[in-house]
């Protein structure tokens, strides 16, 4: 099994996003959800529509699950909008899987998610191996680059130490990646 890397190039991420957005609202939502939250692919695929909505049918700003409370999984406005678009386009019901297969009343498989990501990566001309775990690594790397504390990223990834998280990201020197503390008020 090949080790996958994070997608480091923002331009290539944008190419993948545009491709997936035109291809399928579901696939675009899966990609955005993964790169913006760091949630494991197994957990993403098993989300139900009701896991992301409140009792007033509004998309939650934080994932509604006890396992994602430390730190909570924030669903940014782009992720929330992609969820709404996909639910409307897919005519999904509360008890449906968020990433429902078109062929069965089940979520898409890891293999299907892998194919979706690899197809988009080829369009973006990404060189190295890309897999479902690429979403999680991409989230973590870009969170680190934006100045999110390594201890918070470590908690999100459920790793045992900051050193493990840095190794996971392939960072041997903390100062090798410029950190941008973008408050943007």
From TrEMBL:
Keywords of this entry: DNA recombination
GO biological process: DNA integration; DNA recombination
Pfam families, A to Z: Phage_integrase
GO molecular function: DNA binding
Listed PROSITE patterns: TYR_RECOMBINASE
Domain Tyr recombinase, chain residue ranges per copy: 6-181
InterPro entries membership: DNA_brk_join_enz, Integrase-like_cat_sf, Integrase_catalytic, Tyrosine_recombinase_XerCD
PANTHER family: INTEGRASE_RECOMBINASE YOEC-RELATED (PTHR30349:SF82), PHAGE INTEGRASE-RELATED (PTHR30349)
Protein known as: Phage integrase family protein
Lineage, highest ranks first: Bacteria, Bacillati, Bacillota, Bacilli, Bacillales
């Amino acid at each position: 099994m090949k080790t996958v890397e994070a997608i480091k190039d923002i331009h290539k991420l944008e190419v993948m996003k545009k491709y997936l957005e035109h291809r399928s609202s579901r696939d675009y939502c899966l990609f955005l959800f993964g790169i913006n939250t760091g949630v494991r692919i197994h957990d993403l695929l098993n989300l139900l529509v009701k896991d992301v909505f409140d009792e007033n049918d509004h998309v939650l700003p934080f994932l509604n699950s006890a396992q994602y409370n430390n730190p909570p999984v924030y669903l940014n406005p782009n992720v929330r909008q992609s969820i709404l678009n996909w639910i409307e386009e897919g005519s999904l019901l509360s008890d449906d899987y968020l990433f429902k297969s078109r062929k069965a009343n089940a979520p898409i498989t890891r293999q299907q998610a892998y194919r979706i990501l690899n197809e988009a990566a080829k369009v973006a001309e990404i060189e190295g191996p890309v897999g479902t775990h690429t979403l999680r690594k991409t989230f973590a790397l870009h969170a680190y680059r934006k100045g999110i504390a390594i201890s918070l990223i470590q908690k999100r990834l459920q790793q045992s130490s900051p050193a493990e998280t840095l190794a996971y990201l392939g960072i041997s020197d903390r100062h090798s990646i410029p950190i941008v503390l973008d408050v943007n008020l």
